[in-house]
Amino acid sequence: MSKIETIFSANVPRYTSYPTAPHFHAGVNDSVYRRWLAALPQGEPLSLYFHIPFCDTLCWFCACHTSVVNSYGPVRDYCRLLRQEIALGAGAMKARHRVSHIHFGGGSPTMLSAGDIDRLGCVIRAHFDVLPDAEFGVELDPRGLDSARVNAFRAIGVTRASIGVQDCDPRVQKAINRIQTDDETRQAVRLLRQAGIDSLNLDLVYGLPEQTFQSWEQTLAFAVRLAPDRLSVFGYAHVPQFKKHQALISAAALPGLEARFRMAEFARNYLCSQGYVAIGLDHFARPQDKLARAAGRRALHRNFQGYTTDDAPTLLGFGASAIGSLPQGYVQNISAVPAWRAAIQAGRLPTGRGVEVTDTDRMRREAIERLMCDMRVNLDRVAARYGVTRASFSDAWPALRHLEGEGIVVLEGGEVEIDPQWRPAVRAVCAAFDQYLTARPAHHSSAV
Ligand SMILES: C[S@@+](CC[C@H](N)C(=O)[O-])C[C@H]1O[C@@H](n2cnc3c(N)ncnc32)[C@H](O)[C@@H]1O
N or C: which end of the chain has fewer CB within 10 A? Predict the structure, then answer.
């Protein structure tokens, strides 16, 4: 087994939360969530996330919570309930809150009609005070995007768009059932910029079937020509045990660990040579972009949407399967739309599960977040904030020493630093701090 295979063979979480989602449980229900909402400190701005679990075609690689619909009826019905859910959630809070970040994710928020986008924006503003400089992002499927939707997003305050590109090669697109011409992507970029949504992110994925280094380079070059402010370069997460449709992609057709590592490395070298700065595990940004500047100040954060400048201590999730993070812990809505709908119709918050976080969790979460964001952490400083010493992380030490022996990390006193060449191994380093991991490794994807 090569060194790369040894390091990346274990499946590890993406650490968008800690404890991670497999450790959420039904004990955190709607009454617990109501209590948490009522206790939210007044005055501090919040972040809001809205999940739109619909698409008009099934991409076989997709690991997101979504389903394909052939008519608009279910989407219209969902939007009506989503508006009710916002009112229910806001009603459970003691005060009206300010909002500094909003994100529409999916699925494809581009499934919404201009009218439903507008109604959603109105209900959000009816219940929250959206700050004038709030960052408002939306995930877009560029295929079929029209100016009516783009203008509706702009009118409700959208400032940033994340555009799904994945890979430009027709052979790869066929193998993942995601057929998207370069012209469709260009047209979406043009429409967004014309409407004044000029802060753009492109999503690319490596580790897909039929991908070669040549096709990967062409995809990267195409993306750079569109001059986005940011790019996300995700490693394909193949988890057919949870996403049945991924079984349509044969595991035998996928690039191996060594090739995945080289594709991640190639993307990093290529994008950095084109003037982008590598951020965290899988993001790239122009040096003057807010994300790059936050990374430079070590003020970057990680949440369920990936890397963010959002430092609000509370993120409220709305919509089926949406996850929120509150000072008390994490909450996730019921994932199945019929059960989510039934809860709202009965006047209940549609909470499905969650987990309360302890101080030990918070301390480990901070160490993991700093590693994921900065590629280094000072354990003395993190421990001191919780009134303890570095010795509280002693269980992580054997794994860290092993990683040091492999040349992956440098350990000096309480400082853990990932060797720049081994950046893609950051999740494996974080796993050393994860006290829950051994219980359920099968829930996660390949570490690179
Ligand atoms: C929630 S999707 C929204 C994109 C939008 N629905 C579209 O069709 O373009 C956000 C991104 O997640 C990434 N993604 C989805 N499934 C993935 C997987 N199995 N592995 C890695 N990245 C994935 C893709 O890059 C995708 O653009």
Answer: N
Angle between helices 213-225 and 257-273 (to 10 degrees): 30
CATH class of 359-438: mainly alpha
Mutation test of ligand 1: which of 139, 180, 243 has the most ligand atoms closer than 8 Å to its C-beta? 139
Tens digits of residue pLDDT in 104-121: 999 999 999 999 999 999
Position in ligand 1 atom list of the atom nearest CA 246:
19
What pTM did the predictor assign? 0.95
CB-based burial, 64-95: b 16+ in 10 Å, e otherwise: ebbeebeeeeebeebbebbbebbebbbebbee
On the question of a common fold for 15-356 and 359-438, the answer reads no
**What atom in ligand 1 is closest to the CA of residue 107?**
6
CA dihedral of residues 265, 422, 297, 400 (deg, nearest 10)? 160
- Mean pLDDT throughout 429-446? 75
Residue nearest ligand 1's atom 4 by CA: 164
Ligand 1 atom nearest the C-alpha of 108 is 6
What is the second-level CATH architecture of the domain 15-356? Answer: Alpha-Beta Barrel (3.20)
Q: What is the pLDDT of residues 150-169, one digit of tens each?
A: 999 999 999 999 999 999 99
Ligand 1 neighbourhood includes 63 CB (under 6 angstroms): yes
| DSSP assignment letter at 25 | B
Domain ranges within the chain, ordered by starting residue: 15-356, 359-438
Residue nearest to atom 6 of ligand 1 (CA): 108
Q: What is the pLDDT of residues 181-218, one digit of tens each?
A: 999 999 999 999 999 999 999 999 999 999 999 999 99
